[in-house]
Design brief:
58% strand; 19 strands
Length: 191
Amino acid sequence: MTNVHRFRRADLVAQPWKNGGGLTREIVSWPPGSGVTDFDWRVSIAHIASSGPFSAFPGVDRVITLLEGAGVALQSVDGAVSHRLGQPLQPFGFAGELAMQADLLGPDCHDFNVRTRRSACSASVQVLSSAAHWTQQSHGLLFACRGQWHANGHVLSADEGLWWHDEPSAWTLTAQSDDAALIAVLIQPPR
């Protein structure tokens, strides 16, 4: 499968936020060459170092999952969203156009972010802790948060993952320890 790409969290390049409140490590932005304003789907890991507003992404759906740290309290300016993102590995979705304030619940935190342009695609984000079989999708991503996983012959240790594109693939995922956790992202047609 030539359209499968492996990555290690430690190898991702850190890019500072415009507001200075954190860093983003991009895993993939699709299609190739797209930036933060013209992607169809984008996955990254962020380090939130201070409280402040989230950037708005009109027409984009977002799913944020706490990886490490105390987390953040998310509050939309219009009051429609009030969510405490304090439990690791519990995905939370919201509309990217909402003006959103994020207040740290501790000194800092790291989170996993999935963004999809509504007109192009949607994302299913799940956290797995045991064996699973994923149906065929042309685009997606797997990220081992804890433990080791086997995925169709690939071995993924903690903080390793893979993503694929234009390669209709079904995945058999097997956890190799009791405390294993893996984030699985399937990119699907628009809803």
